[in-house]
Amino acid sequence: HSSGEEWNGLASKGRFAQGGKAPPLFRTPKFSNRIQSETPILQIWSRLRQFSSVELSKKLIKQRYEIEAIDFVESGLEAIAEGLAFCIQNACDYFDVAKTQKSNQQIVSLYYGGIALASAEMLASPHGPNTLDEVESMTKFGHGLFTIDGTGDNQLESLIVGPLSNGFFKKWVEFLGVDTSRFLSKKPKTSTDIGDSEYQIVSFIELLSRVPELEGLFPLVTDAPFNWLAIYFDSTANRTPMSFLQESAEKIEKKGSYIELFDYAGNKDLSAISEYSPLFEQISYGKSNVDEGVAFSAYIKHPSDKYWYNYVNLHKSPFCGSRVILPLFKVTNDYRVICIVVFYTLSILVRYRPSIWRQIEGGIYDSFRVLIEEMIAVYLRVIPEHFLSAILDKRIHTTQPGSLNSEL
């Protein structure tokens, strides 16, 4: 009697086994979306910087066209790649210079750096503009956003921010699939000019309330409520009773999932929860601790072979767990869109509203200075990762060496 190892050895020719599987087909190298590092942001920037090369930009664009089976002309890719490389280099320059600037200068640099990354995102997509000139034409009508004074006693918190039906912002969010049909056609002069279009605007404090990473400082600076919810899979509600399993011999196909939602501010009701997503059904109150907030339960329909979180635009970062954000202007809860609008507003304060900015740096609004500095720190770490994911059209997976998710 011989073991399998002995038989295999006898059947081998020299050091090579006989028979076996056919050689694998050659795979074209793909741009990696996995990062293992003690400081992931450094690798995120090195991955972004690779696209300041026209040749590497061309490879990425070609791969994205091929993945979606979209025909392309080789010569046309050159113009797109040149535009992408320029935008990436532009973004790198803005973010690099921001590292040594004071906060007022830093805000302006980071806003324009974000605009450069948004331009790169569009150029990298098979469904975006085909040249840098097309991107530049989007800015002919300005930023596509406006600010006007609010009516509240607090000039900073009540400052109004809104979108316009022309300009860069409108073109970018349209590219992202946002309905812009009800954006205002022209900038209102005062808040009374807005009329019944209030749903298209937010106050500055409502804007900041959509950044979950600020949860530690936000309630210490303002009485305004959070506009995000913690979200979890409800393992108890999703458990199928054993008696039902024993009675049914047929395959049980799951049509949806129950989730738990938690409002740390503790001041939202059922109707407020429904505004976070049209997918939420069967909304009810859950078990709550009055001192810590209010819990809710909801149901999300989805195919049995999919997961619930594929249907909700979740936000998660190194600074917070899974969160769902109240849609900005009632049309989008895309995190990088929210952050760009935050920095647009801050840049307006820095450049055109020195009377308010002076109060932030050392006056009646000085408590906001720490909140804004925290916002800058979050933006520097999170936004490059979000745009790298958008440019690659892949979710970025980062892990620390030695962690459970790291390579052995």
Could you describe the 3D structure shown?
The two termini are 38 Å apart. With 408 residues, the chain is of the alpha+beta class. The protein is globular. The strands form 3 sheets. Strands 7-8-6-5-10-9 form a 6-stranded antiparallel β-sheet. The chain is 41% helix and 13% strand. It contains 14 helices and 11 strands.
Keywords:
408 residues, alpha+beta, 11 strands
Estimated structural class: alpha+beta
- SS element count, helices: 14
Helix content: 40-55%
How widely separated are the two ends? 38 Å
| Series of secondary-structure elements, N-terminal to C-terminal | HEHHHHHEEHEHHEHEHEEEEHHHE
Radius of gyration: 25 Å
The best one-word shape is globular
The fraction of residues assigned to DSSP E strands is 5-15%
Reading side by side through the largest sheet, how are the strands ordered? Answer: 7-8-6-5-10-9
Question: Quaternary state, please?
Answer: single chain
> How many strands in all?
11
Low-confidence stretches: 242-252
Let me know the largest β-sheet.
6 strands, antiparallel
Mean pLDDT, all residues? 89
